[in-house]
Amino acid sequence: MKNNPLTKNKRTISFIKISATGNDFILFDNRNGCFSGNEHDFFRHICQRRLSVGADGILLIENSERHDFSLRYFNSDGNIGEMCGNGARAASFYAHQRGFASAKLSFDVLGVAYRATVKADWVELLMPPPVEIREYPGALEEDDYEEGGYLNVGVPHYVIFVPDVDAVDVESIGRKYRFHQAFKPWGTNTNFVQIINSNTIKIRTYERGVEEETLACGTGTISSAIMAAKQKGLSLPLEVNARGGALRVNFDEEITEISLEGQVKIVYEGELILNDSLRLTKNDRMINGRMI
Fold first, then answer.
1. Exactly one of 101, 217, 272, 291 is catalytic; which is it?
2. What is the CATH number of domain 12-125+265-291?
3. Strand pairing class (104-109; 189-197)
4. Catalytic residue at 34?
5. Where does 132-256 sit in CATH, by number?
6. Where in the chain is the domain with CATH 3.10.310.10?
7. Closest by alpha carbon to 222, among 191, 244, 245?
8. What span, in angstroms and rounded, lies between the C-alpha atoms of 161 and 228?
């Protein structure tokens, strides 16, 4: 944003607004070390819709000695998250588009390595197997729903099968299971899944950390696909219809590696003007033009 009179002589920081199948993020290229990762209030503030940029979460792209880049993900509440499938796809798209990663790339999240392939605006992410799969955990309280299971695919997810996903009160019921006694102390994301046909499901997700429904959730999509294949016998690859668009999931019989595919697009690029009401930390300052 060169020669912009609105930002002249003001402290600014550039960002990318990026969307992965409706899951939207504020991406900061942090390869210059601008952020420490302790800017929790700042992240929470700029993720607020109608009051700031608004997003489901924050992506920090950083340098890596062993991979094309390193990724840190923060939920919209400002706290660091373990993993975000759609966020990882968005970060991969950005890295390839900006030329510091090839179409087939690798990156790490909190020390765990991942691979991705970028084909135009379509990104495939390869995920490791679930840390835990617990079918029928006995938490379900609704008589007209059917319990799927609890999975940890980098983050925890509870899967519930429903006859009509559009009729579900996702905010209320999703929040109830997010804080349910069965999933303490960490809580869980809640996924509502409707079977459409032999290889298609429809999904809605209440996301922990965002604390509301999101238009799509990558790890929720994977968790729901695994339960649909295991318990309902659906065939692979599975087409998953989220409110933000279509995703595709595939995995082998032993679930040793999982593929998550979908569209990614950059919505816009912008600059945040830092002032007394919007600062990285309570005592932020600049050295040689760089925020620290």
1. 217
2. 3.10.310.10
3. unpaired
4. no
5. 3.10.310.10
6. 12-125+265-291, 132-256
7. 191
8. 9
